[in-house]
Amino acid sequence: MLIDLKNLPDDSNFLKQLVVDLVRKIEQLEHQLSVLRRHQFGRSSEKIDSKGKVEGIGTVKEVSGNKNGHGRKTLPPELPRDRKEIDITKEQHKCDKCGAELEKIGEEISEILDYRPSSLFVRQIVRLKYACKECEETVVTAEMPQRLIDKGMPGEGLLAHILVSKYADHLPLHRLEGIFNRYGIEISRSTMCGWVGVCADLLSPIYDEMKKDVLKSKKIHTDDTPVPVQEKGLNKTRTGRLWVYVGDDAHPQDVFDYTPDRTKERPKNFLSGFKGNLQADAYTGYEETYRKGEITEVACWAHTRRKFYDARETDAAGAAVMLAFIGQLYKVEEEAKEKEMDSKARKESRQKESKPVLSEIRKYLDWQALNVLPKSPLGQAVSYTLSNWEALNRYTEDGDLDIDNTAAERALRTVAIGRKNWMFAGSDNGGVRAAVIYSLVSTCKRDGIDPFEYLRDVLERVSTHPARRIEELLPHRWKSLYGGGERDSPQV
After folding, report:
1. Which residue, among 110, 91, 104, has the nearest Cα to 139 in the 3D structure?
2. What is the pLDDT along the chain (492 residues), one digit of tens a residue?
3. Are strands 103-116 and 81-86 parallel, antiparallel or unpaired?
4. Phi/psi at 290 (5° precision)
5. Dihedral sign, CA of 199, 438, 246, 295?
6. Contact, 234 vs 420, CB < 8 A?
């Protein structure tokens, strides 16, 4: 609205309303500026008081010293070698022409670049070779074990290191490329990108099993975060989303889901078949999931508190009252945690201690709704809380529910940190691969598992592990079956 300051009307009511509108606009702009500054420079504490062929690096060397002719550079000779001999079978020791005993005449050595924490090494695959000296017609060499990447040189340890470095330690592939160069190893980022894709494909059956398991939870925490995605053929990005679904203690999975947009169909599709409590923010897209009545909404007091915290700069007194009330609710939760209360005791504590506080909060909100400007930051915080009041109170009815959705926010934090380094996903397929690996890495951290040890072991197993027993490779199941260092499959 344009105002001619030289020709203002004499109507006092008009002028009063004009001042009110201007003050309200100034408050809104100051609030938006404050929020943007925190988003840019970091929030202060809120406490008050693709599939396909992938080429590898290195060479396959034989005892004769002949190069294999593919133009790959040899692995540095100064790297330590870990020798593993593979013999032919007992039956193969007999010549199939004349029956005489075969004699060892040499060996074929294949070299795989592998990784131990803080060190690169070359793992030699030595296949023993036998020949018949009687008839000189039979030569038998031990078979080459199955490899994760056909004709590629990375071992499971190196692949696990790359995955953990990128998705847990937030190192983009171009930085890893430079790190390997310091070891005298040339691995291009495009090669590593291909390796990541192969690993994600191999790990997808475990990821699919994690999705099934998390949907069996009594409660699921969920949240989402934007992910810039490179637009194919164009020098720009668009916005995809990474969602996380955090299962309960009986189903300890942090499952990420990549989608190219944020439509309401995305959470609805993922949660299809789920019956239980969904702890989330008040995103309207979740409303479709609540429509059938099979999923119960549980709102987040941390999200609510944040809105009042952001309103302090325009109405410090009004916001401070609500922050103090919410602080009392969290004190009840802290005491329950300190006393290690079970579900029943936690519900009783909430009914006795939290319900009276919530009653006082409601009275205060109803009073504020009549006195505060609706479009002011405090007015919007009040409106948000009242509109979600039933869902915000639901946690007091069940000791298994949480007061807030910080479990999902905590799981998404690794994406937010990583995004500052890798900047954007190369494609929608890249987003899907990221969801698979983020799920495994995040769940390992949650279950107290070293993600490197888990991924190294599982990459070694996954190609030959029976599909009917794939649940054994879920991180928490793997920990109990294989986490102690046993590398053979359990007897069934």
Report:
1. 104
2. 555 555 656 666 665 666 666 666 666 666 666 666 665 555 555 555 433 433 333 333 333 444 444 556 788 888 889 999 999 999 999 999 999 999 999 999 999 899 877 778 888 899 999 999 999 999 999 998 888 887 778 999 999 999 999 999 999 999 999 999 988 899 999 999 999 999 999 999 999 999 999 999 999 999 999 998 988 777 788 999 999 999 999 999 999 999 999 999 999 999 999 999 999 998 888 998 999 899 999 999 999 999 999 999 888 999 999 999 999 999 999 999 999 999 999 999 999 999 999 999 999 999 999 999 999 999 999 999 999 999 999 999 999 999 999 999 999 998 988 887 776 778 899 999 999 999 999 999 999 999 999 999 999 998 889 999 999 999 999 999 987 544 444 433
3. unpaired
4. -90, -10
5. negative
6. no
Determine how β-strand 254-259 pairs with β-strand 237-246. Answer: antiparallel
Closest to 194 in 3D by CA, of 419, 414, 429: 429
Strands (E), 231-282: 237-246, 254-259, 276-279
| Phi, psi for residue 293 in degrees, rounded to 5 | 85, 5
CB neighbour burial string for 105-132, b if at least 16 within 10 angstroms, e if fewer:
eebbebbbbbbeeeebbbbbbbbbbbbb
- Token output for 251: 């189903």
Could you give the C-alpha distances from 238 to 244, 399, 430, in angstroms and in order? 20, 41, 14
Which residue pairs from 216-219 have beta carbons closer than 8 angstroms and sit at least 24 positions apart in sequence?
A: 216/247, 216/250, 216/251, 217/247, 217/248, 217/250, 217/251, 217/274, 217/276, 218/248, 218/250, 218/276, 218/277, 218/400, 219/248, 219/276, 219/277, 219/278, 219/279, 219/298, 219/400, 219/401, 219/402
What span, in angstroms and rounded, lies between the C-alpha atoms of 289 and 270?
A: 10
Identify the DSSP state of 87: P
The pTM assigned to this predicted structure is: 0.79
d(CA 200, CA 51) in angstroms, rounded, equals 9
Strand-pair category, 81-86 with 119-131 = parallel
Q: What is the rounded distance in angstroms from the CA atom of residue 62 to the CA atom of residue 47?
A: 65
User: Is 95 in a helix, a strand, or coil?
Assistant: coil
Strand ranges of the sheet holding 237-246, from the earlier edge strand across to the other edge: 254-259, 237-246, 219-230, 276-279, 295-298
Classify 12 in phi/psi space as left (phi over 0), alpha (psi -120 to 50) or beta.
alpha
- Nearest Cα to Cα of residue 247 among 442, 481, 392: 442
**What is the distance between the alpha carbons of residues 202 and 462, in angstroms, rounded to a whole number?**
7
**Cross-strand bridge partners of residue 243:** 224, 257
Q: Which residues of 44-62 are buried (b: 16+ CB within 10 A; e: fewer)?
A: eeeeeebeeebbbbbbbbe
Map tokens 């050595």 to a residue: 109
H-helix or E-strand spanning residue 437: helix 428-446
